[in-house]
Write a structure and sequence with these properties.
alpha/beta, globular, three-stranded antiparallel sheet
């Protein structure tokens, strides 16, 4: 009988931990995630890159350099997404935003978050001061990669030796709120880290695939609606980078979201070696050099520019 109670107690503790890991134990409405400089002004280098002194683009990674390109233009473009958008492995004047700004002559605000996804994009656009920082936006491009669905339910994105946690939003009623990073300290415990990884693996499995698609689309739609309130005449483009257009996501998107896949852009094959950093899938400079002119042409046919 005693052995039965021990087994039952262990199962009970595991279930409680699973519930906590999935639900996010504590939540709070106003989390200080993005730290902008006190004013929207910055200093500009020779490439017209605007720099802010204190920008935190990820819940754990400090980025001192903002890869936005400021032009003397009446209209501007806003980029959302992950490290592909930001330009990991690239210098500012090799990035997506650089080539897009040069080709269109418009200011391009690059809000790509290294390691991020739709949750960070939604959180950013909840900022009431957003339209004062990013003015006259006519076009928003969210660059999507397959892994963004997984990041929707990921708990930790770090080495097992680091107490850093992935940014995470969960739904409360009709809104999303940021969960606390309660798992930062226990994640340093070797076995608990793997326990959380196991929960993430289950949440990202085919069992939860439909739920992940619905959740992702819901947050993308909310991001689009937030931006529509700020910029009523703007267009929102969902650009699928080297991935299928995911009908299981698309069927939940608002009708005014414009979907473009790089597979549908003729004249470029992004699977070629020169478009990748070896085994690192991040785009090389040549990707943006060759893709952006074709993308701009495509955007014009969609009446986005």
């Amino acid at each position: 009988m005693k052995k039965f109670y021990v087994i039952f107690l262990n199962i009970f503790i595991i279930v409680i931990l699973l519930v906590i890991a999935d639900y996010g134990f504590f939540t709070y409405e106003k989390a200080k995630y993005i730290k902008f400089s006190e004013t929207s002004e910055g200093f500009f280098d020779e490439n017209h890159v605007v720099h802010f002194a204190k920008n935190v683009y990820h819940s754990a990674i400090v980025t001192e350099e903002n890869r936005s390109f400021i032009k003397n233009s009446e209209k501007s473009i806003l980029l959302l997404g992950c490290s592909y958008t930001y330009g990991t492995n690239l210098k500012p004047n090799q990035s997506f935003s650089y080539y897009l700004s040069n080709l269109t002559g418009r200011t391009v605000y690059n809000l790509g978050v290294e390691g991020g996804g739709i949750q960070q994009a939604l959180y950013l656009t909840e900022d009431k001061n957003f339209p004062n920082k990013y003015k006259n936006v006519e076009l928003i491009i969210y660059t999507f990669i397959d892994d963004h669905l997984n990041r929707n339910n990921e708990f930790i994105q770090c080495s097992i030796f680091a107490p850093l946690c992935n940014f995470r939003l969960i739904k409360r009623g009709d809104k999303y709120v940021k969960t606390s990073d309660w798992y930062a300290i226990p994640s340093k415990i070797f076995l608990f880290r793997y326990f959380l990884d196991g929960v993430s693996y289950i949440k990202n499995s085919n069992i939860f695939y439909k739920k992940n698609c619905e959740s992702f689309a819901d947050m993308l739609n909310l991001t689009n609606r937030n931006l529509k309130k700020m910029y009523p005449n703007s267009k929102f483009v969902f650009m699928c980078y080297q991935c299928d257009t995911l009908p299981d996501v698309l069927k939940y998107l608002d009708k005014d979201v414009i979907v473009i896949s790089t597979y549908d852009i003729k004249g470029i094959d992004l699977k070629r070696p020169e478009y990748q950093h070896g085994e690192d899938p991040h785009p090389t400079e040549k990707v943006w050099h060759d893709l952006v002119p074709l993308l701009v042409k495509k955007l014009k046919t969609e009446n986005c520019l």
